[in-house]
Inverse folding.
DNA sequence: CTGTTAGCGCCTTCAG
DNA sequence: CTGAAGGCGCTAACAG
């Protein structure tokens, strides 16, 4: 592996000049610049990232903190991961994967103190998140996908759950539905303060209230079996129900089965709308589900971009805060309300 | 951030002694060892990874090359990624994510020349893979999840597709089936030499042949629509068919629909077995699918472990080669052959 | 068993 | 606009 010294020799300049040429930290005459880059080409030279990081105090490495949530990792997280990786690369950063649970703050501290990463992206944040506390305490740069309660003047990117609830209800109302139930994630998640569960719950209630419609909601553990059980109860107790919005992909097969067994056809007799879901699984159902798909790749991208901006910022920008809507994809599980 | 010098001072020893104590590269008297570690504790010292890497020629960083295959990333890849990350951490390595397509060899070369990573894990390899060629050319350490044609005396971990085909057919035969069809992935993938498609095709043919049963196979693009179309044709042309093995998760909803519309109930009239699939999606179907689930986390783990062993090997071990079976999970989509 | 010291490859003040 | 030289924090000879 050639080093900067080799390049300097070949170009007939000092090493520092090569460094400046590479980093653009200082004006260089066009002529020597050319010579230097030619020499780099010839030698197939690439700056050594470790040495650069050590000397320059910036490694151009960021880390993605990927904790497995209770329900396991899914397409949502996969979207974050890959788009964060892409975004990092586009900006000439490297992305590390730190698979730590939300409570492994000691391990996180260790990793940070290693000095490898310039900053981290936190995903799947809890409303109150120890990791975020730690990062604040260490004053270590970070960005968040999701939102905490205590925003601490920090930025974030998240899904606009309220808007999503609104879009869902609005869409069903336009199809003539007035009896709309929400099946949320598990009560445990809700009570643990899991952001999406909490915000969707409140968002849905607010929207239904604003339309002066009856509010009907259920929590449901994230399994088909529980989906079946919860949905059976729900329809038995509410035979007037014509539609349902569900933010619980894993429960959906059970829900469909319950509805079918009750004697309703989808979408002729009953409409089903999957919230904050991914196209992959929405298309796996029969019929394919109309859904409000989560902007996963955008979230991952923005999370990475916000962190990188923060790392490269000269002045202090105001903390970037962004809420993204879900995209409505009309597939086969929704239709006009039955008479 | 304290440095090694601080620790050395506080413990009253030379920096090198601290270094040796940390790395265990040289015997240290128990007493000074204690003093040094106490000093490290007191100062909350952690070795700087960049400096360590630069000086020691080993960064303890490995990279996972994660190309998105044609069909997009799914649970399989997610399993690789997370288990590789876990394994890396357990061995005190850091895992980088390099999202490069299989043909982006220039970018790969660049990243390697940066000197950040000690080695890479390649997944989703093609039977002939440019990345592997490059890695061989550069003599850069790597491990493979999957297999190339030209093994070059290199190790690998992969699924035992032949065994999987055998297990699937055997299981169905025991249920009394003799008319068994295979729905594979797309012909394009097969012809492009995509390992799983090729090996499953050959494995299935060999197994059916060994049982002296009729061989019936179809390729199918990875969408529900195509699954529907291919399956409609298949059953129309083969009304005696009683079962089907499918290595094409995305096509399955369409397949189920086709079978249902044909008038067969699953599993009473027709058995469906999903090959090399993930429990998550197998459980998403109605009924939940009996499947041979892919050992994703084991593959990811072994891929990482093989690389790390290679990096830390003193002597040259023989290249580790391992084929893993899929796990049979009997769920609700298989039953005795209809009369 | 321990200490001294020269790098690892680069960045970044300082002088010119 | 360019050069020289001191460090970044650690490892690994080389000496005791």
């Amino acid at each position: 592996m050639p080093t900067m010294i080799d390049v300097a020799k070949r170009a007939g300049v000092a090493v520092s000049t090569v460094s400046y040429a590479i980093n653009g930290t200082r004006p260089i005459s066009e002529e020597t610049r050319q010579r230097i880059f030619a020499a780099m080409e010839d030698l197939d030279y690439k700056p050594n990232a470790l040495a650069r990081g050590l000397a320059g105090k910036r490694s151009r490495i960021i880390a993605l903190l990927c904790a497995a949530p209770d329900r396991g990792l899914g397409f949502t997280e996969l979207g974050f991961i890959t788009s964060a990786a892409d975004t990092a690369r586009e900006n000439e950063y490297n992305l590390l994967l730190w698979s730590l649970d939300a409570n492994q703050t000691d391990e996180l501290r260790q990793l940070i103190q290693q000095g490898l990463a310039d900053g981290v992206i936190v995903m799947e944040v809890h409303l109150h998140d120890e990791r975020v506390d730690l990062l604040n305490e260490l004053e270590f740069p970070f960005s968040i996908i999701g939102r905490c309660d205590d925003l601490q003047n920090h930025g974030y990117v998240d899904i606009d759950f309220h808007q999503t609830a609104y879009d869902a209800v609005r869409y069903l109302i336009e199809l003539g539905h007035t009896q709309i139930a929400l099946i949320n994630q598990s009560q445990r998640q809700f009570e643990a303060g899991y952001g999406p569960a909490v915000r969707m719950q409140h968002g849905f209630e607010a929207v239904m209230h604003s339309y002066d419609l009856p509010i009907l909601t259920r929590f449901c553990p994230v399994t088909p079996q529980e989906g079946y059980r919860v949905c059976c109860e729900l329809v038995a107790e509410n035979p007037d129900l014509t539609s349902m919005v569900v933010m619980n992909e894993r429960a959906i097969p059970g829900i469909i089965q319950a509805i079918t067994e009750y004697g309703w056809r989808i979408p002729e007799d009953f409409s089903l709308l999957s919230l904050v879901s991914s196209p992959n699984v929405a298309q796996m159902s029969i019929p394919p589900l109309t859904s409000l798909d989560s902007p996963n790749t955008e979230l991952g991208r923005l999370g990475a971009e916000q962190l990188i901006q923060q790392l490269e910022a000269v002045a202090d920008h105001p903390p970037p805060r962004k809420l993204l809507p879900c995209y409505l994809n009309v597939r086969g599980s929704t239709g006009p309300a039955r008479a």
In short: The CA atoms of residues 228 and 258 of chain A lie 5 Å apart. Residues 1, 3-5, 15-16, 18-20, 22-23, 25-26, 47-48, 50-57 of chain A lie near DNA strand C (CB under 10 Å from a C1').
